[in-house]
C-alpha cells in the first residue's frame, strides 16, 4: 500500500510482489536457499519510491497492534491471581507442575 500512496498502481504492485514472492519461494523450496523476498523488492526499480521506507514498513512493531497490552492484562488478571493461590505457589516454589483449575 505504501507504493500506491506514492503513485503506484495497486494491481501492478500486487502482481510484482506475487511474482517476486514466487521467485523467492523457488529459492527456498527448490534450491534450499534463504528467503530473499525483501532483497528482491529492494532491487526492483518499481519499488524505488519506497526503498527508503522499507525498514520502517517492515518493522514488526507496526504489526502487533495492542498484543503487548493484552498480554500484560492477561498476566495481571488471570496468571498472577492463579499463581498467588497456595497450591500453584507451592508447586512453583518446589519446581513442580500443577494443573490450574479455572
UniProtKB/TrEMBL annotation:
Q: What is this protein called?
A: Adenylosuccinate lyase C-terminal domain-containing protein
Q: What is one Gene Ontology biological process annotated in the Swiss-Prot or TrEMBL record?
A: 'de novo' AMP biosynthetic process
**InterPro entries per UniProt:** AdenyloSucc_lyase_C (IPR019468), L-Aspartase-like (IPR008948)
SUPFAM superfamilies recorded for this chain?
A: L-aspartase-like
Q: Which residue range or ranges hold the Adenylosuccinate lyase C-terminal domain?
A: 1-75
GO CC term (a single one): cytosol
Molecular function as annotated in GO: (S)-2-(5-amino-1-(5-phospho-D-ribosyl)imidazole-4-carboxamido) succinate lyase (fumarate-forming) activity; N6-(1,2-dicarboxyethyl)AMP AMP-lyase (fumarate-forming) activity
What is an example of a Pfam family matching this protein?
ADSL_C
Keywords attached to this Swiss-Prot or TrEMBL record, sorted alphabetically, are: Lyase
